[in-house]
Amino acid sequence: MEKRAFIKSYGCQMNVYDATRMADQLRAAGYAVVEEAEGADLVLLNTCHIREKAAEKVYSELGRLKGAVGASGAPTMIGVAGCVAQAEGEEIIRRQPRVDFVVGPQAYHHLPDLIAKAGAGAKPVATELDEDKFEHLAKPQRRAVTARGVTAFLTVQEGCDKFCAFCVVPYTRGAEVSRPVADVMDEAAQLVDAGVREITLLGQNVNAYHGADGRGGTASLADLVGRLSQLGGLARIRFTTSHPNDMGEDLIAAHRDEPKLMPYLHLPVQAGSDRILKAMNRKHTAEAYVELIGRIRAARPDLALSGDFIVGFPGERDEDFEATMTLVRDVTYASAYSFKYSPRPGTPAAGREDQVPADVASERLQRLQALLTAQQKAFNQSIVGRTVPVLIEKPGRRSDQLVGRSPYLQPVHVAASAGGIGEIVDVSITSAEGNSLFGEVPAGRSAAA
Hints:
The structure is a single chain. The protein is an alpha/beta fold. The chain has 3 domains: about 130 residues, Methylthiotransferase, N-terminal domain (Rossmann fold, 3-Layer(aba) Sandwich), CATH 3.40.50; about 240 residues, pyruvate-formate lyase- activating enzyme, CATH 3.80.30.20; about 55 residues, CATH 2.40.50.140. It is about 30% helix and about 25% strand. The chain has a 6-stranded parallel beta sheet, with helices on both faces. A 5-stranded mixed beta barrel has the order 17-18-19-21-20. The protein has a 3-stranded parallel beta sheet with strand order 7-10-13. A hairpin with a 5-residue loop joins strand 11 and strand 12. Helix 8 runs parallel beside helix 9 and helix 12 packs parallel to helix 13. The termini are far apart. The relative contact order is 0.08.
């Protein structure tokens, strides 16, 4: 009887991608990957360390799995993967002995060996950061395209060398590593052959990509986008997440020159105060960031900008927070993610004594989010009355509805008769509600691409 494995992923898009690659490893080891934990012979928690109290949420989930059994009646094997696994290591097994193995995000290629050792009674922990896992992972299996499968994530870069004072990534994902261009192109071609129309390139610091080009040199992210643009059948390219200091002129030019590169950019600034940016070790100023955004928008005037913000960073004063609000008003965002600072053990900021009181940070966050929400609503309203190409991705919640994405990553709801899944259709936007747009396909419509 074939064994069954269930993977539960938390957090970032890279974890979503990593889950697909771990599934490839498990299939190669003889497992069927299933959609629910009940009756699974193996449950793998693919964890994220970015959100507040991430580790405690994992331990809570492990407590719920204590009595889990597989279809055979034997206890379910439990593994913990991802960034919490990297950060906590053997502490996970000490606190929750029911866990059979722990594997960090750079060691997924060891999964079959870890499972074998756990099956023999060991409690292996693999948290190496000195290997390129992509050299060892099982080749990606052709993924059947489903109603949700016309878009895909593709990791091209991992790790970060920036060492921002609040961030655990350099400690959980290691130094920056970029995949060779040939490997990325091979995997992208497989995705396109399987029906994928849009690929989002992933990296902790994706615009620092410097993959081997096969000719003795390295390719930039702009070079890679140019190569991917030549793939027939691939209609759209996106990338995330970027650092302002790695936004080179060639990548700005790619936003101007590559029609398949969508006019949407996630470029975190984190704060608008130079004093706080320096304390964060961001290595850029607010003025430099604003000037950079100006150059990008000059190259692509219709670009929708997204960002990340942290409020209540240790030492943040009222005037520092007001500087952030000023930057947001000056730049304007189509969407953004904003958080209260919360200490991450092992990071430089965690030990600072000038932590901002929780109530002060909460009040600042509410004000910032109100401003960002108003900007997002204004951007969405600016699309009403326009006709935009929409990639139809999946059925809507209603049987008479389909959902797709605009070039600016907004969900767009259309009638089920608008087109087929995977088709790009010109849609006249009639209204904006919440985070979504609603539209109609004009009479005599044809596919946009």
